[in-house]
Amino acid sequence: MAETLFDQDFFDKLNHLAIAMNAYMTHGTGGGRKSNAKGSSVEFSDYREYIPGDDIRRIDWGAYGRLDKLYIKRFMEEKEGIFHIFIDTSKSMSFGEPPKSKIALQLAGALAYLILNNLDRVYVSKMQENTLTVGKGRAGKQAFRSVVQELETIAFDGKTNLNQAITARRFQGSGVSIIISDFLDEQGIEEAVKYLRYKKQKVILIQILARQEIEIEGDGTVNLLDMETGEEVRLTLNRMSIEQYQQALHNLRERLKALARKYEMTYIQMIADEPLDKFLFDHVCNQGMIVRK
Amino acid sequence: MSNWWPLALLVCIPLIILLYMLKQKAREYPFSSGMLWREIYNNIEATKPWDKLKKNLLMILQILTVLLLILALMAPYLKHGGRRYDNVVIVIDTSASMGIRYNENRTRMEEAIDRACDYVDSLNETAQVTILTSNQEAGIIRAGVTEKAELRNALRELTVTDLSGDTTPAVSVVQSMANQWEQYDAVFLTDTPVELGNLQAQVINLYSDYKNLSMDYISYGTEYDEDGNASLTVIGKITNGTQEDVTTDVNLYGDDVLLMVQSVQVPANGSQIVYFQGVAFDGRVLMAEINNKDDLDADNRAYATQNFETRKKALLVTNDNMFLEKAIVNMAWVDLYKTNQLSAVGQEDAYDLYIFDGMVPDTLPEQGNLIYINPPAGGDIQVTAPIQNVSLVFTDTEITKYVADFSFGASEAKEYERPIWADSFISSGSGCVGYYGENAGRRLAVIGFDLHQSDLALQAEFPILISNLMEYMMVSGMVSEDDYETGDKIVFNGVLNGSDLTVCNPSGEETTLAAAVTTTAYTDTGQAGIYSVTQTVDNEEKQEWFAVRFPVDAESHQDGEAITETETVGEDEKNLTGGRELRNLIVLLILLALAVEWFVYVRQH
Lengths: 293, 605
What we know:
Largest sheet of chain B: 9 strands, mixed
Low-confidence stretches of chain B: 565-574
Strand content of chain A: 25-35%
Structural class of chain A: alpha/beta
Order of helices and strands of chain A: HHEEHEEHEEHHEHEHEEHEHE
Radius of gyration of chain B: 38 Å
Helix content of chain B: 10-25%
Shape of chain B: elongated
CATH class of the largest domain in chain A: Alpha Beta
CATH class of the largest domain in chain B: Alpha Beta
CATH superfamily of the largest domain in chain A: von Willebrand factor, type A domain
Strand content of chain B: 25-35%
Radius of gyration of chain A: 23 Å
Helix content of chain A: 25-40%
Largest sheet of chain A: 6 strands, mixed
CATH architecture of the largest domain in chain A: 3-Layer(aba) Sandwich
Shape of chain A: elongated
Number of helices of chain A: 10
Oligomer: heterodimer
Mean pLDDT of chain B: 82
Number of strands of chain B: 29
Largest interface: A-B, 39 and 26 residues
Strand order of the largest sheet of chain B: 16-15-17-18-23-22-21-19-20
Strand order of the largest sheet of chain A: 6-5-4-7-8-11
Number of helices of chain B: 12
Mean pLDDT of chain A: 79
CATH topology of the largest domain in chain A: Rossmann fold
Number of strands of chain A: 12
Low-confidence stretches of chain A: 18-30
């Protein structure tokens, strides 16, 4: 599915993007990303005086000759970034034309491609009900195909409890958590966000909404059927009720924005009928998540 | 409220609610999540009560419309300072003075009609309204009508007459109506004082200050010059009711052709005679008209008719009566023939009048009026008692005008038994010595003494009496006078074996009267102007004209001070309306509600 959507031209564009991380990696195996840890890379970082126990191979003998003191050369250790992509796979995500689920998968695929292309590791997890299904951690460009295959198997059904699903994830070290959802969850997401921040995750919230959720059409009395719960809400669609709904939607977005500010997260909204490449270039770059090399 | 039955329509309100419930047949509307919608519901519950109403605003507006509709059908009536009346009488004065200008735009009559219409509009729906007109008499235009449109139409059709005004008959009619009612309202719209007596009524005084000149009358005489050519001398009287001297032109028309114009100055609150001399005119109708515009137009014209068959023939059958002969010959319009032979009577020549002095023919002529002087007893003349050396006196009758109560002596006289159709005009104190009257289309007078046996013929009153008698006797036309005032009852002297009489008023409306109209009077003389009367006798059409004068004395110059003083006692001039119908207002509200409903509908969809 994803392969047919991402043509070669689009991949070329993706190749010129890299994921910029504000957080430096301190954990994990060596990768293509700078870390606060001083290591054995070729990129010089600093000097410090030798103390017994240091690797004598790192003594700067030139400095010893000039200053008659032993100095150790410090180098930036390059680590791989750990990315977690959480996809909301509830039934509500299959709403809209095009369905939100489709665009969520395309977006996850595109992000995974960028991540893998930057020699980072990516975990794609799907959230359904209150459980979390964590995919394999993948690294290397060649892993993209298996990521796509994994995305293709995801089915959207049932409800979601984002808080319970995300807090079920066990993290080792810091990383970036990208949550792709419509966030139409009455429990909210604050608990999950607090947990992620506690786990030293940089959090990016991507809210996908269908055009039909923003611009309500139709009038008269309807039995509004909740696709997740199957509950019916009897209401009259008219100018007034639609305005109230739009106000409620606006309030939801404002709450998410406020939450993002509070926990230093990034919040991005995407409309399902928006072109994906345009979204990636315009919004994600502008939000500071992806920058040109 | 005038009606209560519309309350039954309240059943419509549950129906509307039911229809709204049925109307709300919901369709399935799948949506990603009901979370935000449930939030709206919570918001709605949390908002103010009137916000909840917004949801069903259309239904509420429709219920409101139905309620207003019911209210309108119930014909609500707002009382302010008045009562609801079951019976209402409106009396409109239609006398000539109501044609006087009330203000720049309208006459008093128009003002009265407008006020009456406003009053009708202000009445409750169930009020039974009677409309009366008041001039010389009271006329019922509508009785017990509740339909306001019909009442308004009836009021709008009322017009001013040329009749003089007297509200007494109207007060009597209203009083007799009011006696049958427990509660009522009576309103007089008039410009003359109303003596209400015990009647409870409102009098709306429509008197207004005005400036008016009136052409009171015109009269004419014929003069002959040396060559025997006739010309007319016309005189007219103009009265000025204003506080300042007025100069005006007076136009004299003959059969609608301008003959002469005279300028005349009329003193303030005074009168002036205008003369037209040497008027060459041989037509029918003379009219004098004041040129100046004033506040009452109807009295600016006066008419006179000229009858040409004025010369009459009289036959005096007497042995010798110089006094009588001289008295008659002095009258230029009488051609007197004299004979002492009774055999001359009933010959081919027909006379308008036969005077039998001391003798009576065996056979009376077929036509012509009769005067008997000292007739011998016999025939229709019943002598009750001969009397001697008596003092006789003229009683006050039509033919003793100017000589009534004059007494004279007679050495011999006869007392007669007065026929039932006759009036006595000479009395001896104990009996009738002379009588006159009309019987079977023929006029007859009897004088019960020989003129030679009396000093009457030596008195100045004698020629006056003879003149009166001749005028009475010589009327051979259908119209006995040529000077009537509006409202007069006119009895025409039609020929018995002729056709019915047709009377045409100044508006051209014709009325047919039976030929023998000695008792049935023509009463439709509400308009001033020239009338004509026509009868066909022996295939020959006879037509005569006569003028009916405007009642100048009564209507042209009202005493404003007297009227306003009378009317200000206890009368509330302006407060006629006792309430206000609310139906129109409610209908407006219904339209407003519908407009709001439309607006809300468009806005919601």
